[in-house]
Structure formats: C-alpha cells, structure tokens
Amino acid sequence: MFTYFLFFTLFFMCIISLSFFKWDILSPNVVILAVYVIGAFFLLIQKEKWDANIGSVTYTIIVAALIEYTLIGAVLTLRHKARLSRAGSGSSSDITENRLGNKHELVVDKKIAIMIILIELIVTFKFFHDIKNGSSAIGSFASITQMISLYRNAQSTGTLVNGLSSFSKVGYVFMTAIAYIYIYILINNIFFDKFVVIFRRNSILYLVPIFLFCMCSLLSGGRNPILKLIMAAIVINYYFLVKNTNFNFNKKIKIIFKLFFILAVVLILFSQLRALVGRTSDYAFVDYISKYIGAPIELFDLFMKQSAYGANSSNIVWGQETFVSLWRFMGRILDSDNLSNLLVSKNWLVVNGFQLGNVYTPFREYCNDFGILGIFILTAIHSFVYNSMYLKIFKSYKKISLSNEIIWVIFYAYISDGIFYFSIDDRFFQFTLSPNTLFFILIVIILIHTKGFLYFRRIP
User: pLDDT digits over 377-399, tens only?
Assistant: First the structure.
C-alpha cells in the first residue's frame, strides 16, 4: 500500500514544488522530487516482479527528508528574493535586454587547441596502455570488451593489482576539465548563433577532446562520466535560456517535453552501452533500467527493514561510506593501506531471481554512518549547498566578469549530478568532496584566466 502512497505523495509534492518555484524546472528542489517520482514510477512497474512493498518507516523517511529539502530551498529562495528587493535590483526583463545586447562567440586560440588535442592523444594512449596492463594482470582477454570487463570488475571488488598510473589519473582530470570548458563554449556559440558550430572550422577542435574524454571513460568501464557530461550540458543550456531569453511559461513547458525526450534517449544509450563496457546483463530494456532507477528505493526499504536504524558500529572510520573519497585521500597522505583502499561494502541483493544490485539511495549511506538523524542532517546540508549555489548563479543579477561567470556555471554543472542522481545514490559527499574536484576546478580557473587561451568575438 505504501508503495502506491509513495508515488502519489511524491508526484503531488513535485507539482506543488513546480508551482511554488514558478516552474523553474532545474531548481534543485524540483529536480530532486522529479527524480524520486521517476524512481517510484519504475518501482511500481516492477512491483510484482520484485514483490515490492514499501514499509511505513521507509515511506516516512523519504517523504520527510524530501519535504525538509524543499522547505530549505523555499526559505533560501524567499530570502534571496527579499535581498534582491531591498537592493533595488532590476527586473528579469531588464536583465534579459542587457544580456541579449552582450552576445559573444567564445574562441580558443587555434594553436593552443591543437596542442590540447596532441596532449590528450598522448594521455589516451597511456590510459589504454594502463587499462590493458591492469586487465592482463588479472586474466586473458580476446577483445576490448572483455578487457574492460576484467578491469572494471577488479576495480569494483578491490582486486585490481595494476591500476592507472599517476600520469593517466592527472591526464584524465585534465581531459575532464577541457571537456566541460568545450561543452560550455559550444553551447554558448550555438545559443547565440545556431550556425556558428557548423561553419566554423575550429569547432572540430572542440569536439575531438570531448570524444577522447568519452572514449577514456568507456575504457575504464564507466558510463557515469558521460552521463554526467550530458547532465552538465543540460544545466549549461538551461542557464543560457534563463539568462538570455524571455523564459515564459510556454517555453518552460516545451523544455519539460524536451527533457523527457532527452531522458528517453539517454536511457536507451545507457542500456545499449552495457555490452561495450563489459556488462553482460541480458535483461530487457525496462527491467535493466528499473534496476538502476527504481531498485535503489526498494533496496533502501529492505535495508531499513533489516537494520536497527542506528549507525554501523563496524565502520573502521567515522562516516566511512559517506566520505569515502576523503578517507581514501587521507589514507594516501598518511600512508595507510586500510584507508587508501577503503571499500564501501554493500550487499548485492537478488529478489525473486532478479538482481536488484547494491545501490540503495543516498539515505542508506547517511543512515549507516550516522543513524536516522544523519539522514536529515546531511539532506539539509545537501539542500543548503545546492540551493545556495543555484540562486547565486541562476538568480543573481550582479554583474560579474565573463571569465568568472564561465567558471561558476561550469563548476555548478560539474557537480549537478548530485541532484540528478539523488534518488539513486549519493554523489556530493562521496565523490564531489574529493581532491579530484579541487583539481578539476583549479584547471578550469587557470585555463579560463590564462592570457591567450580564450577570447571573445562579438556576434553582431
């Protein structure tokens, strides 16, 4: 019964949130509720196969945590509006006119762009060599798909002997930063002149590094970096829509339909890539997607039914699952193998012969590390961080330099997976709070502010 209650409650909350936030469809509060509605929908589809019956405790925790998330967002939004009103800021239409009169094509110096491609080709070759060596140390393989599968499985189980070299790791973060900068550049240029990407020869110089980044991501068995880049592209495109057009209700409705179309394409792509990255599942499309989108809610329910609702006393460090990346980093600094090789061990569950996996929504990590109170504390922090950043970037009309604007938008787009994935797994505390994120943003800041790297060409 609570399975149906959960879906309809979340759906009702999502509609209320859309109304309160004036159909701001990429507001963190709206996105969080929307992804949970989608997750609950897939859970309903698979209810009979999984024998799913959400308990009252799970229902109460999910609904209460999401209400808390939205209320914090609402309070921050109201405070932001009051602050703008007191400051006497101009209306959004005034800002629109100012922005539309300030159109720039972003261009990377051609010599630098070619140099970046050459560097990334070297990194890609080294990356492939490391993956091949790592897989060879585990077993034999007859194809790239088998090589990727061996490497990915060993990495996830902690049995990988030869991993990526420091050169490949640093190079991959560099490739990530370049991919996000170039995505921003392409979207900016397309937005102000739809034909600029087609007819400008240097556009290919932006597309090649993005392709190389995606190729290296697939080589390591990961689809998430590519999905994350797609999410970032959606956020960046939405930013330009909000800042540069009369974003009325009709346009927002059109965007919702476009997002549903993009979601369908992404899910199909996600399913089709499973063989390429060495995942041998033969589930039908809906069953396979449900495993990733709907199953985490069911797994969290099973966890709550079996747990004592308190923090796990067997953790070797405080916040072991929630802050796993930070603890691994500390392990490397302290030369501690126990910390640097820290694994998040979650049971892989099979229900009625169907593999649900081992991803339990973010609430499982929070509860396992800090108890039920931890769920609400960490959810509140998550809401505060994302809503504050969103309001600062999307809703602030303070004039800042184009360079700083680019940096802020790219950074928010980079961490936006934290809201898109919130019904599936925690991304913010586990992965965003890591040295890689700091390294990523430092590269972006250095490149954007490097004289001669990026210049603006006025579009008439």
Answer: 999 999 999 999 999 998 776 67
Q: Following DSSP, what letter does each residue of 290-359 receive, concatenated?
A: HHHHTHHHHHHHHHHHHS-SS--TT-SSTTTTTTHHHHHHHHHHHT-HHHHT-------EEETTEEEES-
Low-confidence ranges of the chain (pLDDT < 70): 88-103, 157-158, 193-201, 245-249, 275-281, 308-313, 397-398, 458-460
Model pTM score: 0.90
On the CB side of 429, how many CA atoms lie within 13 Å of its CA?
25
Q: From CA 454, how far away is CA 403, in angstroms rounded?
A: 9
Query: DSSP label at 429?
Result: I
Strands 354-357 and 454-458: unpaired
- Nearest CA to 344 among 371, 374, 316, 310? 316
Task: Estimate to the nearest angstrom the gap between the alpha carbon of 270 and the chain centroid.
Answer: 14
Q: Where are the alpha helices (DSSP H) in 193-248?
A: 196-199, 203-219, 224-244
Give, as one character, the DSSP assignment of residue 385.
Answer: H
**Beta pairing partners, 107:** 455
At 106 the pLDDT is: 85
Beta-bridge partners for 350 = 355
If you ran DSSP here, which 8-state letter would residue 37 be given?
H
Q: How many CB atoms lie within 10 A of CB 394?
A: 18
Amino acid 397: pLDDT? 66
